[in-house]
Amino acid sequence: MLAPPALDSHASLDETLAAIIRHFKAETGTLHVMEDGMLVLKSLHGAFPPPVMDAIRRIPVGKGMAGLAAERREAVTACNIQTDTSGDVRPGARATGMEGAVVVPMIDSQGALRGTLGIANRAARDWTDDERASLTACGRMLADARFASH
Length: 150
Description:
Layout: H1 13-23, E1 28-35, E2 38-45, H2 50-56, E3 58-60, H3 64-72, E4 76-78, E5 100-107, E6 113-121, H4 129-147
């Protein structure tokens, strides 16, 4: 497995997300946390149009890539958001201008879903099994370090 980046437990969520994006050579990223049964945006790297921002501030489980990653408790990927026909990508996602995207659930060591972590590129990108596993490991580390009930 591709080693996940070393994450500084004292860094802000924005700094942590930026480090993950750099590690995977991605261009944008989102981090959502489960609150009251919804995925709530806590960190964002990148600029998105207002309609996209409105849609990603609070995401129901099961809706869009982040909601599906939370519901399925596994990575959801798109080689090219702009041309995806899988049904996993919502039509509004095309407005991000991104193509290659992956979202993983953040599941803590107790098995609790704490949120989702997503990264994307402007160009089409096939995410390897190693990349998905490494990003999933990042999500697990974040879930344990930042969001698990201690």
